[in-house]
Amino acid sequence: MHLAAHFPGVNNTTVWSDPESRSQIEFRSFAELAATAERGLFDFFFLAEGLRLREVNGRIHDLDVVGRPESLTVLSALAGVTERLGLAATVNATFNEPYELAKRFGTLDLLSGGRAAWNVVTSSDAFTGENFRRGGYLDHADRYTRAAEAVRAARALWDSPADDGQFRFTGKHFDISGRFTLPELPQGHPVVIQAGDSAQGRDFAAAEADVVFTRHGSLAAGQEFYRDLKSRLPGHGRSAESLKIMPGVSVVVGDTDAEAEEKAAHIRRQQVSGATALGLAQLLWGIDLSDRDPDGPLPAEDPVLDSAVVQGRVRPTDPVGTVARWRAAAAENGWTLRETVIAQQNRQSFIGSPETVATAMDEFVQQRAADGYILVPHLTPGGLDDVVERVVPVLQERGVFRTEYVGSTLREHLGLPRPKGARSSGAA
């Protein structure tokens, strides 16, 4: 089983009001959570990206007020206070050039001794693009084409001959040549992570990614995704072991299953305030709900499909169907809008005693629904403590998780080979 840690930051899972919650931007918070992950022998530490503050009706989304530091800068600092933990940064392929990406991630790989990873994301919306010189120029259909080219171009630079660094890459989006300025990287190429779930995203992952970050909550859904994605690999000349599938999950641990369920329910109520419930509902309905009562009924209106009420957030792919499911659940259970959001949006993945959680996590891996997990805690920086101190030892006792780091690079942690064609002793 592979485990990774996600720093929650400006996330819907984050509980700001808890007395144990501390800064989302001070370096001490990043360092403490990373230290916990490394103590737990996790594969890597994962940071998201925010290229623009999200808006609701032209006002800044409440969770974005704190801001979000640039991930590569934070991870470069963490390289100096960690020894084995992988360092994964989310960086957009739409608004960055391959040479810059190759050099920045290559530098992190050098600084960390081979622990760098790039979570490749895309953006095609003009709202985000307004922060950049080219604006929202990229059509939605081209976003994965450019991302795939950006990855291949970066690899061409990492593979350039160590003696002179000459490279050339030609594609639809990039035509670049020159000399790369970095020496041989400790792990050949930084690990590539991807999180798309569409058919195009799955093809991109099968062709280019080393790790996939997904969000399939049920065993059946996880198995379907796992089968589909792994079945695409041979078409790209890859084996099933060359791609690790790691869903993002949340874990709540208690002395007993009943105590954990009570604790989880309390966390869900903390996560969804009235304002948050209205914000998430506005994202789904696409209309202004600022004057509605979150403790009242669901909106009676139908969703507006072409809406700009919420900017900078991805809407559900099927708003009409999702609203229908929400209404059915609310009617069946007598839920208010807020109670419906709590039930539909913030169900923890694994809840129970350490033994119960370990058994459930292991089942997903053994039943081929996942290769491991990216844990998304609800508190910063202490949100991983229960997992590391109480669940990891059970996994280790059962022989399904490491008891020590064997290698020093992230590729070694993940069981990934050194890439073919990577620089070695001056050879191309």
UniProtKB/TrEMBL annotation:
<feature type="binding site">
    <location>
        <position position="198"/>
    </location>
    <ligand>
        <name>FMN</name>
    </ligand>
</feature>
<dbReference type="InterPro" id="IPR011251">
    <property type="entry name" value="Luciferase-like_dom"/>
</dbReference>
<dbReference type="InterPro" id="IPR016215">
    <property type="entry name" value="NTA_MOA"/>
</dbReference>
<keyword id="KW-0288">FMN</keyword>
<protein>
    <submittedName>
        <fullName>NtaA/DmoA family FMN-dependent monooxygenase</fullName>
        <ecNumber>1.14.-.-</ecNumber>
    </submittedName>
</protein>
<dbReference type="Pfam" id="PF00296">
    <property type="entry name" value="Bac_luciferase"/>
</dbReference>
<dbReference type="InterPro" id="IPR051260">
    <property type="entry name" value="Diverse_substr_monoxygenases"/>
</dbReference>
<feature type="binding site">
    <location>
        <position position="140"/>
    </location>
    <ligand>
        <name>FMN</name>
    </ligand>
</feature>
<keyword id="KW-0503">Monooxygenase</keyword>
<dbReference type="GO" id="GO:0016705">
    <property type="term" value="F:oxidoreductase activity, acting on paired donors, with incorporation or reduction of molecular oxygen"/>
</dbReference>
<keyword id="KW-0560">Oxidoreductase</keyword>
<comment type="similarity">
    <text>Belongs to the NtaA/SnaA/DszA monooxygenase family.</text>
</comment>
<feature type="binding site">
    <location>
        <position position="90"/>
    </location>
    <ligand>
        <name>FMN</name>
    </ligand>
</feature>
<feature type="binding site">
    <location>
        <position position="144"/>
    </location>
    <ligand>
        <name>FMN</name>
    </ligand>
</feature>
<dbReference type="GO" id="GO:0004497">
    <property type="term" value="F:monooxygenase activity"/>
</dbReference>
<keyword id="KW-0285">Flavoprotein</keyword>
<dbReference type="InterPro" id="IPR036661">
    <property type="entry name" value="Luciferase-like_sf"/>
</dbReference>
<feature type="domain" description="Luciferase-like">
    <location>
        <begin position="22"/>
        <end position="367"/>
    </location>
</feature>
